[in-house]
Amino acid sequence: MLNSYDDFTQLTEIIVGSAENYLGHDRDLTFELFFHEALGGYRSDWAYPRLAARGTGQAEHWKISQRYAEELHEDVEDLATLIGSLGITVHRPLPLPKDAAAIAGLGWQAAPTPALNIRDNTLIVGNEIIETAPAIRSRYLETRLLAPVFRRYFEAGARWSTMPRPTLTDASFDLSYARDAATTLGGPTEPVTNPQPSPYDVGTEMMLDGAQVLRLGQDLIVNIAQDNHRIGADWLEQQVAGRFRIHRVWRMADNHIDSMLLALKPGVFLARHAGLRDFLPEAFRTWRFIVPPEPDPGSFPAYDDADLLLTSPYIDINVLSLDEERVLVNADCSGLIKTLESEGFTVIPVQHRHRRLFGGGFHCFTLDTCRTGGPEDYR
After folding, report:
1. What distance in Å separates the CA atoms of residue 34 and residue 136, rounded to the nearest whole number?
2. Is residue 287 situated within a structural domain?
3. CB under 8 Å to 101, separation ≥6 — which residues?
4. In a domain, 2, yes or no
5. Domain annotation covers residue 31
């Protein structure tokens, strides 16, 4: 039975994503906006050139090195095997076919990506699966690769809901975050200023990822960086009314917060920096903040200029807790490992070489469906 209210009570069932046939990225307006912070300032003192200037639905396909794709696939498969060896039931999505045809919406088309970062387009709240509203065209149908798993949970009694789907024309997006340099958390960026009109425009639409939501029993902390997120949070509050409390935090990150802040157990957060305390609802500011040392640049592979970095160097904060004691951590992140061990956690090191190229860590790659915790009040 589906039962997942938090990220730290004992894990019994989980979905682990698939990296099979992850061969490239479609760089269009939606991709540029989603990765605005990472594309702008986490590489050096220059920005990747913006490629989304040719009109609605246009994209440039950015190929990924075959070697990196194969090594990612190996690391993800090893992750799934390890979790299963610990007595946890592991479910997997359908693999993306090598020759997958392009997907299309109203006025656009995109090459699909595999269901790897599955925390993004799905939110599990208690006994409910919520397919969230995607913000990247290439990921529009990604949850269909998870549908067989979701159906089994539905047939066992779970609720299964879908947030209204956006049309994803250029006009669907609130561009204020990408236009205002003062709001970016990275370095220099080229502003995204050239949305193209479409006959399918319906105005600003809801978009919200599961990874923007921190689950704490009865409480859901939702990060909002712009109006698309705000509308999505409003829908979510209506959807879970009477079962969960929604707390909105403003621009803790440009979208996802699980490489900024994660709960390791009641009363303890793992945080990128102590200043995140000020973003939280008053009731959670009294929790202890574990702040690891700054990432060691030597713990990341060296890449060429043509390799697109999609995450900050803080991606290794994106850990996966098996319970309130055991934590899966990137084996290359020695500072974080030492910090957690000094705090009494049992660290299980796991290899994940190319986390910056593929936009996710262990929390991103997984979706916990059964934990022993319930709708506790952790305030």
Report:
1. 7
2. yes
3. none
4. no
5. yes
pLDDT tens-digit map of 45-91: 334 445 544 445 566 777 888 999 999 999 999 999 999 999 999 99
Question: Cβ distance 100 to 21 under 8 Å?
Answer: yes
Number of domains the chain contains: 1
Q: Which residue has the tokens 């392009």?
A: 102
Q: Take residue 1 and report the two structure tokens written for it.
A: 């039975």
Please check the confidence at residue 332 and state whether its pLDDT lies above 90. Answer: yes
Do the Cβ atoms of 47 and 40 come closer than 8 Å? Answer: yes
Evaluate if pTM is beyond 0.85. Answer: yes
Each residue's pLDDT tens digit, 267-283: 999 999 999 999 999 99
Q: What is the CATH number of the domain that holds 168?
A: 3.75.10.10
Q: What is the 3-state secondary structure (H, E, C) of the chain?
A: CCEECCCCCCEEEEEECCCCCCCEEEECHHHHHHCHHHHHHCCCCCCCCCCCCCCCCCCEEEECCHHHHHHHHHHHHHHHHHHHHCCCEEECCCCCCCCCCCEEECCEEECCCCCCCCCCCEEEEECEEEECCCCCHHHCCHHHHHHHHHHHHHHCCCEEEECCCCCCCHHHCCCHHHHCHHHCCCCCCCCCCCCCCCCCCCCCCCCCCHHHEEEEECEEEEEECCHHHHHHHHHHHHHCCCCCEEEEEECCCCCCCCCCEEEEECCEEEECCHHHHHHCCHHHCCCEEECCCCCCHHHCCCCCCCCCCCCCHHHHHCCEECCCCEEEEECCCHHHHHHHHHCCCEEEEECCCCHHHHCCCCCCCEEEEEECCCCCECC
Backbone angles phi, psi at 224, to 5 degrees: -130, 120
Residue 278 lies in a domain: yes
Query: Among 87, 104, 84, 92, which Cα is nearest to 19's?
Result: 92
Distance CA 39, CA 326 (A): 33
Domain that holds residue 78: 11-371
